[in-house]
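General statements about sequence and structure are easier to judge against a single worked case. Part of our work consisted of pairing the sequence of a single chain with a tokenised description of its backbone. The amino acid sequence and the backbone structure tokens for this protein are reproduced below.

***
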Amino acid sequence: DELIHVVQHAAFIFLGINIWMALLGPLPKPSWFGTTAQFVYIVAVRLTGAVLGNVLIFGEVFYRVYDPGRADWNVGAASDQAMAGGLMMLEGSVLTICLLAWLFLKTAKQTDERQELVEFARGQGVELTDSRAARAVAAGRGEELRERILAGSFS
């Protein structure tokens, strides 16, 4: 049924976005979900996708319904399924490389900003712990903390 097919693909898109919202979403992250946890998250999602892609490539045909594609494109169900698995693996690899590059650049930027904040606070005679600076930077509020230190309203 065409409606079920459309609902399936809408669910795939919704769930795919939902998976990455934990990493890229606008909500603050818990303190334990730092760089290492984010790296593990990316790798775990990638490995899950790789397993599914390999099952599609090397497994038995799951959907014989696509046999009409043989007449239109001269592609059998097994070839169609293997191509889908290969495409999944390719998309997953590109996404993983992009996410790991993003994570590296974000971590480098946050490390620099955190160090600058600690040094700035020390220069102002304010004791700022590395963990507090890291939380502010991770939440995107490093500049606000800098302004509070400068205004003398830091506690």
